[in-house]
């Protein structure tokens, strides 16, 4: 099912002032986080992408999170793997909603990422999603839902996306090549 194929190339969405910041700890996270940007693009939501590491580029993270709201971002989606403190540190510096995507790690299959993102102490929330691709897609859809609260056109687009998803589900299973 290819529901998140962009209606236009993702770079076109990036020409508009971004509403969603998609950050990740490493280039190696992109294979997961591109599912987020493809979903945002399919819904025509402008976004930006940045590699921002909590431990390798701490100053970049602080600057990004502290200035995000003032630059017009409404939601930040942060993907990280292993000791995945990026979403939590980001949330510490902004009151924007921070959606955390646990990237699947080699050593522990993403359980380390999941637990380190989801177990935030009370007071600094990070909304945490499933490990890997599903979480990356759902974080984008949740960002869309948040933005839809004040954007009726986006709400319509989200309704259409859901309808297309339903229409793409076959009534009966078929034999697939082994
Ligand atoms: C984290 O460490 C990143 O989010 C990434 O998932 C993980 C591994 O990074 P690389 O060693 O592949 O750069 O900071």
UniProtKB/TrEMBL annotation:
Task: List the catalytic activities from the record.
Answer: 5-carboxyamino-1-(5-phospho-D-ribosyl)imidazole + H(+) = 5-amino-1-(5-phospho-D-ribosyl)imidazole-4-carboxylate
Pathway noted in the entry: Purine metabolism; IMP biosynthesis via de novo pathway; 5-amino-1-(5-phospho-D-ribosyl)imidazole-4-carboxylate from 5-amino-1-(5-phospho-D-ribosyl)imidazole (N5-CAIR route): step 2/2
State the top-level EC class.
Answer: isomerase
- The EC number(s) given in the record are 5.4.99.18
Alphabetically list the UniProt keywords: Isomerase, Lyase, Purine biosynthesis
Which GO BP annotation is one of this protein's?
'de novo' IMP biosynthetic process
Q: Where is the PurE domain?
A: 18-169
The keyword Magnesium appears for this protein: no
Q: Which residues bind substrate?
A: 26, 29, 56
- MF terms in GO: 5-(carboxyamino)imidazole ribonucleotide mutase activity; lyase activity
Cited function? Catalyzes the conversion of N5-carboxyaminoimidazole ribonucleotide (N5-CAIR) to 4-carboxy-5-aminoimidazole ribonucleotide (CAIR).
**Matching PANTHER family, A to Z?**
PHOSPHORIBOSYLAMINOIMIDAZOLE CARBOXYLASE, PHOSPHORIBOSYLAMINOIMIDAZOLE CARBOXYLASE CATALYTIC SUBUNIT
Q: Which NCBIfam families match?
A: purE
User: What family name appears in the similarity comment?
Assistant: Belongs to the AIR carboxylase family. Class I subfamily.
The protein depicted here goes by the name N5-carboxyaminoimidazole ribonucleotide mutase
Annotated source species: Acidisoma cellulosilyticum
